[in-house]
Design a protein that fits this description.
The structure holds two protein chains of two kinds. Chain A is of the alpha/beta class. Chain A is about 35% helix and about 25% strand. Chain A has a domain of about 170 residues: Rossmann fold (3-Layer(aba) Sandwich). The chains are: A alpha/beta, B mainly alpha.
């Protein structure tokens, strides 16, 4: 806390990360920094390396070269996928996978970190502080009224929020969110934007999205990826004015 | 601790209307059936024959077996087609105790060796028959042998991530292999005749009406106890993990649950309940032979559960009673049609009643509630 704000280490720093698949360079010397509490949007045409970048951060893919550090002290390249999840990086995949036959509340309860063995789960009851925590997440994701609802009966958008809630309840420092608004109605998109904006500050977020309108509505900083490295970075205004971005991405 | 033992099942029952109805009915059966069998004279219209009481007792052991299968199939998504093996093993453990109780009253009058061993010219008791003269030891084995087999088999299968239809097939192979083994005379389990001609249990004659009534009540209590145990498990937090594994196994693993140990634990519990059911079955029907290991028996159990309605526990009980009642009636009236009837019943339920008979009742209830609201 005594450190001046400018000297704070970034939440995530990727340096010169390169990944090749059979000669194809999915990531090519990618360097990216995300600050604590930042909400960062990543855009880019298909094949720009967005998903590969997420895979490197979560340990699914190992880079050929470069470094990936989390909260400065943690070298992500030395950890396995579960260890990275434990360290505080949560990833939301594109397709929502919630436990359809259980209530919204039970889904969050299942996702809570802590005791996971059979004996613990047979004996231990959910404590009141845990219930409070679940209630807080329910309020954040706007599903308080649907807590007893079967998750399978939720709309597509509500399932996405529930899944974000299942990540939130593990209290990750960094959230990776892959195309959160695909297939959502305009109202749902608006609420998702609100949700993500409200999470920034408490968590750091990286959001990959194609929907430009959505990106404009949530992000302060946008990073454009192209052919595996950063093409441009800045606020949405600067990005839209950038001639190279127009050329490769906006197709002008 | 004791408080938790009572509070757990009670809390679990609060949200379980079907279960409360079933347990009340079971309690009434446990009281009324032995009374109607024992008190009115044989000519009275109120009299319940020994045959009927025995039949209901047998169905109750089947219902326990169905609950055991519903616990793993309905709640954890593990389709075991070999649960008849655990039932039969529990039955054989009881059979061994009953054989040792015969003593000198056998045809050959040997105080230690059962008749079939004399017949095979054996001169001493095989090592695994020792201890079975004690009921406590036999009771332990009724639970331990099926439980241990499930532990080893499940450990190997779940650790290698054998699941779905592959798991079903190897459980069929397991019960088939045991059937072949138990058919062999030199296994020491009476070969294809199995065990029969039992005389006493705990010193009481199996033919005595009081013993039969006591066995009936013991079976009803075991059925109720198994139901409460399974209900407590599925209503616990662990039960929610078990359902999560059924619905999205890899997601549960991703959240940090050791899917294998949950599956193994439920599988072992289920096998122990099946073993106890088998142990109660044997003194009531008076025989156990390797036919009980037959793969078709295990498939039938799954059909009971499917017809009753899986994933409800009481549905399994309803299915076991319905199908076995139909079987008793058909094999008496139209024996050659039974298998066709069973097959059509299974197909019909699969096509038209995905939630089984209890699902139909629940749907009717909801429709009526809607109708009266409108």
């Amino acid at each position: 806390m005594s450190e001046p704000a400018g000297a704070r280490s970034p939440m995530l720093s990727l340096d010169d990360v390169t990944v090749s698949f059979d000669g194809f360079r999915a990531l090519n010397g990618l360097t990216l920094r995300v600050e604590v509490g930042e909400l960062r949007c990543i855009i880019g045409p298909n094949g720009a390396g967005k998903t590969t970048m997420m895979d490197v951060i979560t340990g699914k893919t190992r880079p050929d070269r470069g470094s990936a550090r989390f909260a400065e002290s943690t070298n992500l390249l030395e950890l396995t996928e579960p260890e990275i999840a434990q360290a505080g990086i949560g990833r939301k995949f594109q397709k929502p996978t919630v436990f359809e036959n259980q209530s919204v509340f039970a889904n969050l309860e299942l996702a809570m970190s802590g005791a996971k063995t059979v004996w613990q789960w047979l004996r231990v009851r959910t404590t009141s502080s845990q219930v409070e925590r679940i209630d807080a997440v329910l309020a954040t994701i706007g599903l308080t009224d649907l807590r007893a609802q079967r998750a399978g009966a939720l709309s597509h958008g509500q399932k996405q929020w529930l899944e974000i809630g299942m990540l939130l309840i593990q209290d990750p420092q960094l959230l990776l969110v892959d195309e959160p608004v695909a297939g959502m109605t305009p109202q749902e998109i608006e609420r998702t934007a609100e949700l993500l904006r409200s999470l920034a500050g408490k968590h750091s977020l990286i959001v990959v999205e194609h929907d430009m309108e959505f990106v404009r509505s949530i992000a302060s900083t946008v990073t454009v990826l192209h052919e595996g490295s950063v093409l441009a970075e800045g606020d949405m205004h600067a990005i839209q004015a950038d001639a190279r971005v127009k050329q490769v991405y906006l197709g002008e | 601790m004791a408080e938790g033992l009572i509070a757990g099942p009670l809390a679990a029952l609060r949200a379980d209307r079907g279960g409360r109805a079933f347990l009340c009915l079971l309690l009434a059966t446990a009281v009324v059936v032995p009374l109607l069998n024992g008190i009115p004279a044989a000519e009275s219209a109120l009299h319940l024959s020994n045959y009927t009481m025995n039949l209901i007792g047998k169905y109750m052991t089947y219902a326990m077996l169905a609950i055991a299968v519903d616990l793993i199939w309905g709640y954890c998504g593990i389709l075991s087609l070999g649960h008849g093996a655990f039932f039969a093993l529990g039955g054989y453990a009881m059979g061994m105790y009953l054989m040792r109780q015969i003593g000198t009253r056998g045809v050959y009058g040997d105080p230690v060796l059962p008749d079939f061993m004399i017949f095979l010219n054996w001169t001493q008791l095989p090592w695994f028959w020792h201890g079975f003269q004690s009921f406590a030891y036999a009771l332990l084995m009724m639970l331990l042998v099926p439980g241990l087999l499930a532990l080893v088999f499940g450990f190997l299968a779940f650790r290698s991530r054998v699941s779905g239809v592959y798991f079903s097939i190897i459980t069929q192979a397991l019960t088939y292999a045991l059937m072949l083994a138990f058919f062999r005379n030199d296994m020491g389990f009476g070969g294809n005749n199995g065990f029969t001609d039992f005389k006493d249990i705990l010193g009481f004659s199996l033919q005595a009406p009081a013993t039969r009534a006591a066995l009936f009540v013991a079976t009803a209590l075991s059925l109720g106890g198994s139901y409460l145990l399974c209900r407590t498990v599925v209503a616990s937090r662990a039960g929610r993990v078990i359902e999560a594994i059924r619905d999205a196994e890899s997601r549960a693993r991703f959240l940090g649950y050791r899917v294998e140990s949950y599956k193994l634990w439920v599988f072992v519990l289920s096998a122990i309940i099946a073993g106890l059911a088998g142990a109660l079955y044997v003194p009531q029907v008076g025989i156990i032979n390797p036919g009980e290991f037959s793969p078709t028996n295990s498939i039938e159990i799954v059909i009971w559960v499917a017809i009753g309605g899986r994933g409800t526990l009481y549905g399994a009980v309803v299915g076991a009673f319905l199908v076995n009642f139909a079987k008793t009636w058909f094999t008496g009236a139209l024996p050659e049609f039974w298998l066709y009837a069973l097959g059509s019943l299974f197909i019909g339920v699969t096509l038209f009643l995905p939630y089984g008979v209890v699902g139909l009742v629940a749907r009717r209830g909801r429709a009526r509630a809607r109708g009266s609201a409108a």
